[in-house]
Amino acid sequence: MAVPLADSVYAALFNTTSPVDPTIRQGDLVRFSYAFHKPGHDPTPLVIITDVNYKNAYVRGVNIHYLTFPVIKGLLQQHGNNPAFSYSNIKGNEYITSAFRQYKRQGIRQIRKLDVPFLLNVLASVRTFSPNEVEAIRRSVREQINRLTNPVAAPSVEMPVSQNPIPQPNPGVQA
């Protein structure tokens, strides 16, 4: 049995998030605060929506906070803003499905829809390092740490003969 007031509140929540495109649908990338997060879990998920279920009051999707940049980039390129995006698109990838979550709509606050093409443009400009560059950076860091922890001792200064308690042989006198 439908509850008109509750349905209108939920619809209002999901239809007033963005001035440009106010609806949240499959393939959209959204950020929100989640009131029902468990300790140690993400209180502000960033999710690519797979489905919104008004009847059972939940939202499901992939929380990209649990993924690496290359995977996020590929996921957004393939499925960002795709209204046909669903769990079946990712179910074969164990790494991505490990980031799949379900959220109760009652716990979702401050939902914001993000601009996927803009984010893809930003991710395209993120610099990646080749393995040789990473190794050169590691070597440089090791050398810097080594210099700080094992400083080279400065040469000792010889004391003048008058202050030296050990008698020095006189080179002009032969024994």
Mean pLDDT over all positions: 78
Q: Mind telling me the C-alpha Rg?
A: 32 Å
Counting DSSP E segments of at least 2 residues, the number of strands comes to 5
**Major β-sheet strand ordering:** 4-3-2-1-5
How far apart, in Å, are the first and last alpha carbons?
119 Å
Biggest beta sheet summary:
5 strands, antiparallel
Catalogue the unreliable spans.
1-22
Structural category = alpha+beta
Oligomer: single chain
Order of helices and strands: HEEEHHEEHH
Q: How many DSSP H or I helices?
A: 5
Query: Hey, roughly how much beta strand do the residues contain?
Result: 15-25%
The geometry reads as: elongated
**Helix content range of the residues, please?**
25-40%
Description:
This protein has 175 residues and is of the alpha+beta class. The protein has a domain at 4-125. Helix content is 32%, strand content 18%. It has a 5-stranded antiparallel β-sheet with strand order 4-3-2-1-5, with no helix packed on it. Helix 2 runs antiparallel to helix 4.
Key terms:
alpha+beta, elongated, 175 residues, five-stranded antiparallel β-sheet, disordered N terminus, 5 helices
Put the structure in a nutshell:
By secondary structure, the protein is α+β, with helices and mostly antiparallel strands.
